[in-house]
Amino acid sequence: MKPILLIGWKDLQVTFRDRAALLFMLLAPFLLTLGLALVSGQFSEAGRIEQIPVAIANQDDGQLGQALVKLFQDSTLADLVSPTVVADSEAARRLVDQDQAAAAVIVSAGFTASIVPDGGAPPAETVAITLVTNPARPIGAGIVRAIVEEYLSRVETGRVGGEVIVRQLVETGRLMPQHIRAAAPAIGSRAVVAAVAEPALRLRAATAASGPADFNPMAVMAPGMALLFLMFTVANGGRSLLAERAQGTLPRLLVAPVTAGQVLVGKLLGTYLAGVAQMLILVVGSALLFGLRWGDPLGVLALILAAVFGALGWGMLLTALARTPGQVTVGGAALMLIFGLLGGSFVQFGLMPGWWQALSHLTPNAWGLDGFTVLSLGGTLADLGRPLLGLVVMGLALGAVSLLLFSRRSPEKQL
Length: 415
Fold this sequence. Notes:
The protein has helices at residues 2-17, 19-40, 63-73, 89-97, 111-115, 138-171, 180-195, 218-247, 249-253, 260-290, 297-321, 325-343, 354-360, 364-376, 385-407; strands at 52-58, 81-86, 103-107, 129-133. It is mainly alpha-helical. The model is unreliable at 44-48 and 200-215 (pLDDT under 50).
């Protein structure tokens, strides 16, 4: 047992003295995670969308135009939008052109009268609300569009509701047909105004004393990058094994009172410890740099140990199939990219077809991300049964196949 531990510890020290290896093991995952966080806006205040500037030009003198302005000025939307009421449509468009507003909402004159006309006469054409969007702010403009569309939906609901009320009053005899023309406008107006009286959106911020935590996209980005570069670490361990064999280091090592099996297990232990150390450093570093909460510490530790074990199985298989260090380098890079794409490090496999999701679980990346997602949503070690089992079975199965391939080599080429 002692020779195995000594060989594993020596390989771990060699790995962390290799500056090029450290760049790929630690610096590259941090930089990619940082880049993804910046692109996705995860460093904005509290991770929220900032107030969206909106220009509003209300040229309608009726109740519905005023109701739309009040909607954007309502306190329930204060954390989402920052409205600016301007005098005319040209001023609103100018704010969008100057990138001072994500969108301009223009309520044309006669909008209210076209929905609820005086005298009950049906309008010849409904006056539209014009929405001018800023292509440089697609997300903000999309949110403003959603608010306006919800408002118009309520207007239409109120209009139809008014017609239904008038029809029911006539059918029950409470309103004489000759009085429809005089009573319908007031009834319709009350129905429409009542429909738009409540804000289209209500935002509520609350902190639960207990229960599942809010999902943070960084909880997928950071472990995705860590698992991606974990494949580099296990492949690098296999490359160093073949490199030492080619350089004659291993034959000299076998002169010592150790068996070939002990040397192989010691080498694998060194690679495993390097992978565990890499994951632990990335976890702690992400928590300190990005404020990421990984979840239950025992669950995180168990998942790291299992994820490295599963990835080591692929590293062993690659080493058993390769004949030269260069083949391991090329094969390891290919596996790293393929597993990253297939396993969800680059693309969320939850959005992919069913066959893709099934195929993705041939990779340790997918099982690892399953587990980290569970932890980020408030799960504990007890909830990680399936990911842990998948990773352990993967490592055992691939390890058994790899050892079988090693045993079939000639004695002088087993190591």
